[in-house]
Amino acid sequence: MLILRLSFEKKIIESVLKKDWPLLLWVQHILFWIIFAFVNIYFYISFAGFPYNLYCIIIALISNAAVYYISFNKLVPEFYITRNYAQYILYTILIFVVFSLTRILVEPGLIAGPPAKIEQGLLFIFIYTSHGICILVSSLLGISKHKFMIENDLVVLERIKKEADMNLLKSKVNPHFLLNTLNNIYAIGDNINELQSQSVLNLSQLLQYTIYETDHKRISISKELQMIRALTGLYQLKHGHMLDISFGFTEEEWMDDVEIPPAVCLTLYENALKHSAIGNDPSAWIKVNIVIENDRWLFTVSNSISLSDEINVHYEYKGIGLSLIRQLMNIEIGADNYSLQTEATGEIYQAELILKL
């Protein structure tokens, strides 16, 4: 019990986390069962003769082990840790009563034979006490286990956060410098042709979006579409404006008012650029469409599926992925306020994002 109490102290937790805390938990289990088994064996050997004492020892250990591990593996994690205290107390009392009554009905008949007899009152007290101790110790160990897990996760998350912050800082140093350089080049204007000027502008817009806009929780749809067009312009420039990429919408005023988490539409478009093999497959195509109907905003990206299963090796996809898109939308928009569906039909792949306005 002292070990269990100390395990909750901050200093002890910090020292244990630096070592193998699951091993400490197993040591606590083993120590408890060595002591507990010894007490049970001593009790029945002292009051009952062979082979009756052997039968009772086996029943007692099996019964207590069942109570112990049901409490440790089931009741604590599913009810106590999740703060369903009423259910935790109810089920704890239930297993205590069921296993205690079962032993009370079985053991007196076994011990009644010669050469010794245990008073029923003493036997009942021993049965109740042993089950109560098993529930108490298993509950404390189960709670301490989850406390260790939470503390360990916090240490890991803190380390990951520090690494992420450092990587983010490093990732922004060079883009800042490059963005300023591109803006300076674009400002020259007269000394470069229109095509070069537009490509510099597109690249500058993408860098600005990466550095500044992605830090916001939400951005307007117009900014997201602006980045899609900028990325398309750079991609078309690389392939001589021969790519079959079409946009089935025009810029409208409402696009400045509707907001979504950044990089959502851009990621769906990047996914189409990669998996359509556009630029490698002459028959590849991509279509982007936006419509508003019945207070819903629909963003659709359709693309061909390459027959050769060749992905676009010239485009290194760095999008956040569909799973993270859903997580972002669940947090910022709410799961009931949008839907994201993807479907592959024949040689066509389509991603559709629907947002309630």
Structure commentary:
This protein has 357 residues and is of the alpha+beta class. 63% of the residues lie in helices and 12% in strands. The protein is built from 10 helices and 7 strands. It has helices at residues 2-6, 10-17, 21-47, 52-80, 85-111, 120-188, 194-211, 221-238, 264-275, 322-332; strands spanning 219-220, 244-248, 259-260, 285-293, 296-304, 338-345, 348-356. The strands form 2 sheets. Strands 2-4-5-7-6 form a 5-stranded mixed sheet, with helices on one face. It has a two-stranded antiparallel ribbon with strand order 1-3. Helix 4 packs antiparallel against helix 5 (85-111) and helix 4 (52-80) runs parallel beside helix 6. The two termini are 58 Å apart. Mean pLDDT is 76; it is low at 1-19, 169-174 and 311-319.
Q: In summary, what is this structure?
A:
By secondary structure, the chain is of the alpha+beta class.
Name the descriptors.
5-stranded mixed β-sheet, 10 helices, rod-shaped, disordered N terminus
The total of helices stands at 10
Give helix % range.
55-70%
The major pleated sheet works out as:
5 strands, mixed
The largest sheet has its strands arranged as 2-4-5-7-6
Structural topology:
Blueprint: H1 2-6, H2 10-17, H3 21-47, H4 52-80, H5 85-111, H6 120-188, H7 194-211, E1 219-220, H8 221-238, E2 244-248, E3 259-260, H9 264-275, E4 285-293, E5 296-304, H10 322-332, E6 338-345, E7 348-356
Helix pairs in contact: 3-4, 3-6, 4-5, 4-6, 5-6, 6-7, 7-8, 8-9
